[in-house]
């Protein structure tokens, strides 16, 4: 599944290009072609059909207005793309509403932007979107497979009716949840405090070691959730 990040900014095209190169939106100067870079006024001057044709190639749009962002979203959707938009200002609201997924900034975002969005990024960090996507891809996909491949439980038909006042979680379920939570917290705390030694990162720079350690902790957390879903049956009281 292909994913592409586009930057729509009010800065001039030269500044926008430099930011895109630093962020990795443009891999190199070779990617900074006329097809990938465009000014807002040039984009809005195109016809609807022409906008659809060029929208998929655009990586950076400079000197753009908030309406240009909306036009880009609409053009991409007409081409069949699923579009997510980030924004923090009041004038971003139309694009946030129009997008398949609107993401507003939680710290600097206006109330209008937050109300128009589907998701609020609490730390105003764009990388949180990537982390959220990774968590959903791994946990939802593998979790659904774990539930879908679980064999049928025949003895459910022999169970007596359950009183409506009975708790949803049985004692066995509560015990297993507590054990799983303690296990995961212990593993993550060990990695947090002694991760540099465990991963043999003592000789690395502090920034690189922390980046590697935090990445390992994050992926360990995700895989712990997947493993827990695979091992805990939902139909056998576990």
Automatic annotation (TrEMBL):
Cited SUPFAM superfamilies: Calcium ATPase, transmembrane domain M, HAD-like
Q: Work out whether the entry's keyword set contains Amino-acid biosynthesis.
A: no
Q: Which Pfam families match?
A: Cation_ATPase_C, Hydrolase
Chain ranges passing through the membrane: none
Q: What does the UniProt keyword field contain?
A: Magnesium, Membrane, Metal-binding, Transmembrane, Transmembrane helix
Show the Gene3D superfamilies listed in the entry. Answer: Calcium-transporting ATPase, transmembrane domain (1.20.1110.10), HAD superfamily/HAD-like (3.40.50.1000)
| Membrane topology reported for the UniProt record | Multi-pass membrane protein
Domain Cation-transporting P-type ATPase C-terminal: residue ranges: 129-226
Cellular component (GO) terms are: endomembrane system; plasma membrane
For this protein, the record's InterPro entries field holds:
ATPase_P-typ_cation-transptr_C (IPR006068), ATPase_P-typ_TM_dom_sf (IPR023298), HAD-like_sf (IPR036412), HAD_sf (IPR023214), P_typ_ATPase (IPR001757)
Q: What is its main location?
A: membrane
**GO MF terms, alphabetically ordered:** ATP binding; ATP hydrolysis activity; metal ion binding; P-type calcium transporter activity
Location(s), subcellular: Endomembrane system
Q: What is this protein called?
A: Cation-transporting P-type ATPase C-terminal domain-containing protein
